[in-house]
Specification:
The complex is a heterodimer of chains A (293) and B (227). In chain A, 25% of the residues lie in helices and 31% in strands. Chain A is α+β, with helices and mostly antiparallel strands. The longest helix of chain A has 14 residues, at 196-209. With 227 residues, chain B is mostly beta strands. The chains are: A alpha+beta (293), B mainly beta (227).
Chain lengths: 293, 227
């Protein structure tokens, strides 16, 4: 069991409240996943800049900052608990190869607008530690994990990001991920963990890089991914949900003129503004629901 | 009597409803701010009326005996699961496994019910005014499932002796589920159940009846009364 949540804002009205809205959703989903929690939040992009979300683990921030400044020319590096957001105008491939070589850190995501924070611990504590309530943005995705398939670690926490501005959260378990992983490694997709969800994220990255849109990608995932899943996935401008054909893993959607909210259970969104007049429905099995592009 | 989930703990509310003092003669209760909480109104045994003002989470009204529960919103997984008697009326949609394993009573859903509606039902009557999802009445043993709209894939898979009446279209039938002849006694039974759900205006002849082909389990006509 895990809890998945997401919000996509259709108007600007709640941009400043996005972190607060998501925070309440994650805390409410503690009952479905007390082992670890994480979230991806999409902010307005700055021209030419790429942002790298880094978990610095046990490193002392000031020392990390000093060391990294010798290797990467950055515009800013901001500490948020044991994570750091590094912004740079340098070539992303170069920055990624430098960051991937530093064994003590985990690069949890990168892109023009995405920021990702994830850590082991109770969702309530994780949300507080990263001060999620203060975040603003356009859309966001979160996860509370009850570990089944791989260990309780930062790398085993969701969201998973295997491409620029992409992220995925998953409730369920895949059964053909080892085969798929081998196939995707041949197509130069890199994996950091043994986790099944990371393979699904890699599958999506591979399809998106082949110029397919998010909806088409998830439609092909329905035939290629075997197992139980409800996925919520985000890109720079897009947001989508899909459930496998058996649909054992729950999801509820609440849509108003201002936002689309998705959660494993309705109780996660009972606090959202205007939810009582929202159009509330369950996504049908095997059908992709998407917003933006 | 008003019971507010913002002020009282769920356990306290359920305990109150489970231990009604018959001398006080208070039969009407309203639950405020359910906010999708699970296990609201489970294990009730008295003949009381409860209105829940909003959406409920999992297993609302589970194991109910005698109580009359109205949910003014949507219901999560397993509404009325294992109900023995009484009535539960959901004014919105219901999630998966509505009425699962229930032995008796009446469950009315004004909207749609999603997958596995009436899974393993054992005697309950379920009336869904909208449509039901895939694998509804899976391994259903006894009772009646009435759906005014459509049914999803594999309706009545591995069915025992539940009668299924569908007003709309069936996407596909599950293993051992077949369309059956609608006799007068079936029309009468359907009419009675539609009336209970205040659906007298619907014509019973527009419904089709489905049931078990009795090839998957050892059906013995001598034991028919036990089903």
């Amino acid at each position: 069991m895990c809890g998945i949540v997401g919000i996509y804002l259709k108007s600007k009205k709640f941009e400043k409240d996005l972190g607060k809205m998501l925070s309440g959703m994650l805390v409410n989903m503690e009952s479905r996943g007390p082992d670890s929690a994480g979230f991806a939040i999409y902010k307005k992009e700055k021209k030419e800049e790429f942002k790298y979300s880094i978990c610095i683990n046990n490193l002392v921030f000031e020392k990390f900052k000093k060391d990294i400044s010798k290797k990467i020319k950055y515009n800013s590096i901001l500490k948020n608990s044991d994570h750091a957001i590094l912004s740079s105008k340098e070539n992303p491939n170069k920055v990624l190869s430098i960051l991937n070589e530093i064994k003590e850190i985990s690069l949890v995501g990168y892109g023009r607008s995405i920021e990702i924070f994830k850590q082991i611990g109770n969702p309530k504590d994780v949300v507080k530690k990263f001060n999620l309530e203060k975040f603003s943005g356009t859309h966001a995705i979160g996860h509370t994990r009850m570990a089944t398939e791989s260990a309780i670690t930062t790398d085993g926490s969701h969201p998973y990001s295997t491409g620029s501005d992409e992220c995925l959260v998953h409730n369920g378990s895949l059964s053909n991920h080892n085969n798929l992983r081998r196939d995707l490694i041949k197509r130069r997709i890199n994996f950091k963990s043994e986790n099944d969800t990371e393979v699904a994220a890699g599958y999506i990255s591979n399809h998106l890089s082949n110029k397919k849109n998010l909806k088409e990608t998830l439609e092909s995932a329905l035939s290629d991914l075997d197992g139980f899943y409800t996925f919520i996935t985000g890109t720079k401008k897009g947001f989508a949900i899909v459930r496998d054909e058996i649909a054992c893993k729950p999801a509820v959607i609440s849509e108003t003129i201002d936002y689309v909210a998705i959660a494993s259970e309705f109780q996660a969104m009972a606090h959202l503004p205007g939810v009582n007049i929202a159009n509330i429905f369950e996504p049908q099995p095997g059908i992709v629901y998407s917003w933006g592009n | 009597m008003k019971l507010d989930l913002k002020k009282l703990k769920l356990r306290k509310i359920n305990e109150t409803l489970q231990s009604i003092d018959p001398k006080k003669n208070n039969k009407n209760y309203t639950i405020l701010n359910p906010e999708g909480n699970h296990a609201i109104c489970v294990g009730l045994t008295d003949d009381i009326d409860i209105t829940v003002k909003g959406h409920v989470g999992y297993y609302c009204g589970g194991m109910n005996q005698n109580a009359n529960i109205t949910v003014e919103g949507n219901a999560g997984t397993g509404v009325a699961e294992n109900m023995m008697s009484g009535k539960i009326h959901v004014k919105g949609n219901a999630s998966q496994s509505a009425g699962a394993t229930a032995h008796g009573g009446l469950l009315i859903i004004d909207g749609d019910a999603s997958s596995r509606c009436g899974i393993s039902m054992k005697g309950i009557d379920i009336v869904v005014k909208g449509s039901v999802g895939h694998m509804s009445a899976f391994m259903a043993q006894s009772g009646n499932l009435i759906v005014c709209g459509n049914a999803g894939e594999a309706l009545g898979d591995s069915l025992y002796e539940t009668d299924i009446y569908i007003g709309g279209k069936v996407k596909s039938l599950g293993a051992d589920c077949i369309e059956k002849k609608m006799d007068n006694k079936h029309l009468k039974k359907l009419e009675k159940l539609l009336k209970k759900a205040k659906l007298e205006k619907l014509k019973t002849k527009d419904f089709k009846r489905y049931g078990s082909a009795r090839k998957l389990y050892n059906f013995k006509i001598d034991n028919v009364s036990s089903y």
